[in-house]
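Hi all, long-time lurker, first post. I run a small reading group and we've been trying to get comfortable going from sequence to structure in the token notation. Rather than ask abstract questions, I figured I'd post a concrete chain and ask someone more experienced to write out its structure so we can walk through it together at our next meeting. Sequence below, copied exactly:
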Amino acid sequence: MSDADRSAPDLLAPIPFPPVPVAPHRALLDGPDARRTWWRDHVTDRLDGWGARLFLWSLRWLPVDWCSAVGAALGRTFPRAMVPEPALRARLAANIDHFLPGDANPARFAQAWYVERGRVLAEYAVVDRLVAEERVVLDGAAHLDAACATGRPLIFVSLHLSNWELFLTALSGRGGIGAARGLRIAATNRPPRNRFSRRLAADLRARNGRLAFPPGTATARRLRQILTARAGHVAFLIDEVKDGEIAAPRFGRPPAQAGNLVIAAKLACATDALILPGLITRDRGAHFTLRFAPAQDPRDFAPDTTGRIALQNAVSDIAEGQIRASLGQWWNLRRIPTPNGETEHDR
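-- Answer (accepted) --
Happy to help. Here is the structure in token form:
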């Protein structure tokens, strides 16, 4: 290795997540709003975070199938714990009625959706073991290998579908399909507001061997540097919720002006990267399929804003088809736009 190589910065080095602001103890002497904030930061968040850590630690001792089954039982028995907000439960019911075919049973579909949510939450404890025990099969390997063979940087895009943390771990974590192909992949993750939950999430991703960057300007610059220097690849979940709206897919709405899909399209156009849509779906129990669609090439679109928007729309259409094919496994079904285009505000 040359001196230049040794002195070059590691573009895949972690970017620190920003600290969580915490109400000072003097807030107890202020008004009721300040005291409620103090109570949330020092009591409620601590109990929630420690409770989640204890819950996942206890599940860690179980066989993987038992762990997933415990989650299924919790989702079936305590659906309100999966979605505490009444408004979002009402939106979920409305969306089920709208998108299901006429001969489907909405009540049975809703129960299956809550069961899926319970499984996903419990499986956070064993995501690394799902990969290690080869419970993820690959469909669309030809699309992945063809994209890798081009030698160009790749931008993986996926959705909050089934166990999305497993998608990112199987793709970029220790022992995953990306590691088997020599791919180094960085993903962005919006951290929880609760500082105890944030530490738990960081610990779980470190155990899974995942590289996660916080959202923000510094990360955007770093991702562009990674792709430009061919130092690695990046991954986004494009159906994030921001300002009360699902960024993608659009479901007939005008093209988004911001969000992970917009960032992915801009990066692809700027760095000559391929966009590779993928998703993970549950087959049965704790067994999954990781699927890839054909890559979208920015060279196939006009080299201007119109072309970039057309690229966004192409990826959005693929994502919408993936969601409609596995609607009961999509977490954001509780926020999907209603037929009149309205969305539930983020909480």
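A couple of things your group might point at:
Confidence is low (pLDDT under 50) at residues 1-8, 338-347.
The first helix runs from residue 3 to 7.
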